[in-house]
């Protein structure tokens, strides 16, 4: 904010003189001024440029009080427009079929829909959004909705400001919800710690802040324990200094612990992506021994299937992924079977030719997608339930999309194990991979089993595509980006061993993420590759080599 | 198609090919288009190929140039940097084109450079780049760092009061050089070392979890923090997604990007990105008559009402119009004559102003800062007064402070040291 609103200054001065006056000023600032109507106050917003906006918003907050909330909220949401014809302020929400649905911003009466040309937006930028959020926070701190109060306090905690002190005290006196009371106490203690000069209230505040993980608290503490040029504490009161530094140490300890947990989660989540993309390959390459360079493109097809499914059900994005999972499995699986029947089966036992042929197939698939869907990336929407994060506390949260992908990877892995261990198909697959001619002699249709196995592996690649569509770009190059990684995991884990793939995927993910902070992303990638090269030199069969007769 | 028709078409085609070899050489002016149509860069470059083709079609409707029709020669360097050099050689020595519009990445331009200088061709390069270059045979119609990066940083510093800086980029020549310029600039403005964090990631990076967490930590230490992003192409989408998921909004930590335009945003849901910034010389949302006309023409040409326009397209538009004007002025397509005629040429840009080609082969352009909107467009929040002339050699790097590029006699040098009054060839 460039200019401090006048009432900040006012209440700051008044706060020094006593609480009675300041409460009066707080009361004044939220009482509507009856002589000017809200409509008159809002009118200058029409066509105002960005330089004038902060003053207009401030005036709205001070003079219209809580009645200004609908206008301020519409403005913050970027939905405040005015009609070109009569300069009337409206709230406009864009419609999926084009145009805008407009309503009166004061009375919320619906006014029908208009074309984009008929209305213009009231200007808004970042600085203004910050100001609006603070203003709405002050106006809703005493609202009836506990959710609004909670957001308001969280906002105030982010930026401790003495001007909010009396408002917070007022809110504290009325609050009944215990969670909000805790948060309010934290905010009050923080303000007290920054403002107070006597030892007792400051120690009291420090005691209150015990266990708080808010970044603002840590910043305040760091300011307290700052040293001057001679490494002497700047803080005069040594008792306050020592208890502040003790508290800071405690917080830093906790921060370190959560940072470790966070890195572990990042690693497991990267690992689960590696696991997903490698599981399909572990079947086609590991079990069947086919070097399939088109594996990445089968993943890409899965991602594009998700895109097509979303195109087909535009009004049910929330459920689209549930449909996309089986659809992608089928599409990639069928394409896989087609590749196996038309190319790979003629190249049995000739790895070099298989490699070249499947590489050719991968280029064909890429260019096909480029011609059908255009070379541009396609937009795959993320359903509501996969966005945002699960907040454990104020510094540690798990993003939902990663969490779901992690669970999905494990689920796919378990299902695949069940298929291989518990079904006739699985039995046949294992039989053929152990001894082809013997299996044939026992009446197993090896041709059919080959096609099914390849289809299964390709289908799983399709599933990986669905997951990746939520994490990265859906474009023709999607597959290329992951093919090296998937071979890396399978070779590291041990060819022909699904458990090896699981351990290799997860451990490589965790390893990379613990390296990254120290070395940077580029170097971490190189180091992981170097590590694998060295490891393969020592143990050419990977982490868990196949043993016994299966190894032949 | 029946058999007879097919045969006559085939005959015609053969006859046409024989004739064209002798006729076209005299009757048309050949325009080379050197943009990747496959591989990683196809996503950005195909649009520019279509833009050039649209401009050529348009010019031919107006009666061509010097009484001749323009004939496009499109080649596909397939995002493969050495292939760019080979295709340039093919265009210049086999097809004998009079001008080339092409390249996107700096590495592709660097690989074209020796060939185009050796064969004395003419290249129009339409993308913002890191500077530190000026060739006699290249006209740079995109932004130099002082027309994009520096004004963006100024905006953050003055308007948003940013005190801590994260310079995040993809690991290649453009981000590395730009960040070097920016780091020197920030330090000159009194920013301390510990308030600058520099981070590089590989091409197409998709796992941004730990980097975004680092940025969050870096930004939570009480001072206003911003990210200056030179992250290239595709990698931006997962980066912004991760920012949204970890709850970092533009109000907490704004990101200003130099490689994110309307085209890149058309591939993602922009609601969580509202308020993040981009610095360009053109936005589709700018209101001007030229722009309205250009957008309408583009949508009609590409037959898609949803397609967007972006800054490199404007740079292509300006470059093409300037070349046409210069050829008309020189009365010939001869490279040396056109090169001299280009200097000082003015054409209208799409933001309602005028583009001027300066003596250093760079343009004067307005600099716009825009905020991302929920509909994938930008809203201009800041604009420079008038146009900024492009500076080929940055004033903030120790090695290039004294160097100027000036292609007018008596200097005629792309790398002229003003202190020692010596010319060290065209490039570094």
Automatic annotation (TrEMBL), chain A:
- Tagged with keyword DNA repair: no
The membrane spanning regions, by residue number, are 264-291, 319-339, 403-420, 487-511, 517-536
- How does the UniProt record describe the way this protein sits in the membrane? Multi-pass membrane protein
Note whether Cell wall biogenesis/degradation occurs among the keywords.
no
Q: Which InterPro entries match?
A: ABC_transp_permease, ABC_UrtB_bac, BCAA_transport_permease
Location in or out of the cell: Cell inner membrane
Keywords, comma-separated and alphabetical: Amino-acid transport, Cell membrane, Membrane, Transmembrane, Transmembrane helix, Transport
Return any one Pfam family short name: BPD_transp_2
* PANTHER family linked: ABC TRANSPORTER PERMEASE PROTEIN, BRANCHED-CHAIN AMINO ACID TRANSPORT SYSTEM PERMEASE PROTEIN LIVH
Family classification: Belongs to the binding-protein-dependent transport system permease family. LivHM subfamily.
Official protein name in the record: Urea ABC transporter permease subunit UrtB
TrEMBL record, chain B:
Q: What gene makes this protein?
A: urtA
Would I find Oxidoreductase among this entry's keywords?
no
Matching entries from NCBIfam families are given as:
urea_ABC_UrtA (TIGR03407)
Which InterPro entries would you find in this protein's record? ABC_urea-bd_UrtA (IPR017777), Peripla_BP_I (IPR028082)
PANTHER family, alphabetized: ALIPHATIC AMIDASE EXPRESSION-REGULATING PROTEIN, PTHR47628
Q: Which residues form the signal peptide?
A: 1-25
The protein here is known as Urea ABC transporter substrate-binding protein
Tree of life domain: Bacteria
Which SUPFAM superfamilies does the entry link to? Answer: Periplasmic binding protein-like I
Q: Per its UniProt record, what Pfam families does this chain match? A: Peripla_BP_5
Q: Which UniProt keywords apply?
A: Signal
